[in-house]
Design brief:
By secondary structure, this protein is mainly alpha-helical. Helix 1 packs antiparallel against helix 2 and helix 3 runs antiparallel to helix 4. The N terminus is likely disordered. The chain is 50% helix and 6% strand. The chain starts with 37 loop residues before the first helix and ends with a strand. The strands form 2 sheets. A two-stranded antiparallel sheet has the order 1-2. Strands 3-4 form a two-stranded antiparallel ribbon.
């Protein structure tokens, strides 16, 4: 397992811990001349660094969601892992910045490392090398830690803004989970087998903490069939009631459109094998 910041970290696989909306970047002027405050500059550089990482993650999660086969998904996932290996290697990037920036850096970096540890546990669990009880324990530990770091990050950011009279850039607002939004638009999500708050947060580009607050959840436990409100920046495409098989389709690729597992898709359509044919109509809903 990877330790907290200060020890070696080979790579990170993360969720969209902080995602939100943007704002116009503002400059601060001094009495002597129009120039950007060094405190503003350091915060902007810090925010741009982490926002780039999270936006790249978004790109990989979209690619994974659109994978047409298991082999393609594995290839994308390998690229995803490699990206984070290089992105998080330089854990001393902000060592010469002011103390408050280093503090903000600690909160984000440590959260991401914790998520990496959970990703490793997820792989072990899916390979049968970790029990369900131990996996659930790892998940609860991760979400509790990340929620605490998220709260500390937001508190420290607000303090920095007030102390140095700066403004939050587009990237900083992105990291702050869009707290400056006046209203939050939501859709309803029904929990399926295998779901957890971490995975749902990735899918809808939000955080575990945001989901828990929006749904007044006291813990991270979910039940199959449970209804959750999830914040969205745009309405996701509605899942159609049925689908007509086209050339090149597989049950795996179709399951992505249906937002069902292959097993669920087969059960719903009374399929005894993975064989399908062009023109065949598959039901997505009962």
């Amino acid at each position: 397992m990877i330790s907290k910041k200060g020890l070696a970290a080979s790579f990170l696989a993360t969720s969209l811990l902080f995602s939100g909306v943007g704002a116009v970047l503002s400059e601060i002027t001094t009495a002597s001349a129009a120039q950007v405050s060094p405190y503003q500059t350091e915060l902007n550089t810090f925010a741009a660094h982490y926002a780039k990482i999270f936006r790249t993650v978004e790109g990989y999660t979209k690619q994974l969601d659109g994978a047409k086969s298991e082999s393609q998904a594995i290839k994308i996932h390998d690229q995803y892992m490699t990206y984070f290996s290089s992105a998080l290697d330089d854990d001393a990037k902000f060592a010469k910045y002011n103390a408050e920036i280093q503090n903000l850096d600690e909160f984000i970096y440590n959260s991401l490392v914790e998520m990496y540890n959970f990703e490793i546990d997820t792989i072990d669990y899916m390979n049968g090398d970790l029990s369900k009880a131990d996996y659930d324990k790892s998940y609860n530990s991760m979400t509790k830690f990340v929620d605490s770091q998220d709260a500390l990050f937001k508190k420290a950011a607000a303090s920095y803004k007030a102390k140095y009279k700066i403004t939050f850039s587009n990237d900083m607002l992105y990291l702050l989970d869009g707290e400056q939004q006046d209203t939050i638009r939501t859709v309803t999500y029904t929990v399926k087998k295998g779901d957890n708050l971490y995975r749902i947060a990735i899918k809808y580009k939000t955080s575990v903490d945001a989901l828990k607050k929006l749904n007044h959840l006291k813990s991270s436990s979910l039940k199959i069939g449970q209804k959750l409100k999830v914040p969205v920046t745009s309405n996701p495409a509605a899942t159609p009631a049925s689908y007509k098989v086209k050339k090149g389709d597989t049950l795996y690729s179709i399951s992505k459109t249906a937002r069902l597992s292959v097993a669920e898709l087969k059960k719903l359509n009374n399929l005894k094998s993975d064989s399908i044919y062009v023109g065949q109509v598959l039901k997505f809903k009962k």
